[in-house]
Amino acid sequence: MVYGPTMTDTILIERRHDRIAELRLNRPEARNALSRELIGALDEAVTRLGKDPGIHVIVIFADGTAFCAGHDLREIRAARAGPDEGRLFFEELMAACSDLMRRIVLCPKPVIAGVAGIATAAGCQLVASCDLAVASTEAGFATPGVDIGLFCSTPMVALTRNVGRKAAMEMLLTGDPVSAARALELGLVNRVVDADRLEDETLALAARIAAKSPRTLRIGKRAFYEQAEMPLAEAYAHTARVMVANLLEQDAKEGIGAFLDKRPPSWEPLS
Fold first, then answer.
1. Dihedrals φ, ψ of 233, to 5°?
2. Source organism's superkingdom (predicted)?
3. What is the pLDDT, as a whole number, of residue 64?
4. What is the per-residue pLDDT across 2-41, written as a single tens digit (0 to 9) for each?
């Protein structure tokens, strides 16, 4: 299913594959740069799909040769013509982009990026904000704001929650591109596949996850990000409480029973 007037004049294409929602960035002429409009469209879609009981996993792809080249620099330059030299627009843009990245993390459904081509600056941030990422062998990643006098400070938030500090600082300070293979070593992506297999492999990964209990996925994703910000003792106390609550859910009862009875489980639909 495609949302929007046509395939060619909507900046975000949406399709459904059983329990999987596919979102496809569709600004290939702008290397899928995150304009204010595209940020809003992505935010709306992730929010809506996060509440859709028929969707278990969200996948983000992009049309064209680039996954996402970051913020739209032409839009930013145009905003400087305003009486405040763009300050209000810049504040709203950064707030909206930060809200989108948080929305992906807080979304109760797993979100997977399927990356073909480059993902730079806020595009790299988008990949790092997703729960999982599959990259083609031709993908590349960079935070090159330093090259144009604009340090990638907001992308840094997501980047440093995925890769080690030294590696993150090297990317941020040099702006040098990182290959898909190196991104895999750093933990920025989960796997690298041949370019012609990217969509199939990404959707296959999504399908494996979508087959799990949607209630359990929601519980687990939320707990993952919550405990990651806690000291060790607090994290164990919190996740112990989560485990107890999870054990009392019907899907845990059903899943354990199905495993012991050697039969496929039957998961409760989300309300």
1. -65, -40
2. Bacteria
3. 96
4. 333 333 459 999 999 999 999 999 999 999 999 999 999 9
> Which strands, in side-by-side order, build the sheet including 191-193?
12-17, 20-25, 57-62, 111-115, 132-136, 191-193
Residue 164: both structure tokens together: 């080690």
In the prediction, which pLDDT does 270 show? 83
**Taking a C-beta distance cutoff of 8 angstroms, is the pair 59, 207 a contact?**
no
Handedness of CA 158, 162, 165, 171 (dihedral sign): negative
* Threshold 0.85, pTM exceeds: yes
Cα–Cα dist 5/20, whole Å = 22
Which pLDDT does position 6 carry in this prediction? Answer: 34
Residue 213: its pLDDT value, please? 97
The single-letter code of the amino acid at 70 is G
What is the Cα gyration radius of the chain?
A: 19
Residue 236 carries which side chain, given as an amino acid letter? Y
* Largest Cα–Cα separation, the chain: 70
Between β-strands 140-142 and 118-120, what pairing exists: parallel, antiparallel or unpaired?
A: parallel
C-alpha–C-alpha distance, residues 187 and 171, integer Å: 14
Q: Which residues of the chain have pLDDT under 70?
A: 1-9
Alpha-carbon gap, residue 269 to 158, rounded angstroms: 32
Q: Hey, what domains does the chain have and what are their CATH numbers?
A: 12-210 (3.90.226.10), 214-261 (1.10.12.10)
Please name the residue that has the structure tokens 């145009």: 78
Q: What is each CA distance from 102 to 105, 108, 111, 146, in whole angstroms?
A: 5, 12, 12, 24
pLDDT given at position 271: 73
Report the 3 state secondary structure along 54-97.
CCCEEEEEECCCCCECCECHHHHHHHCCCCCCCHHHHHHHHHHH
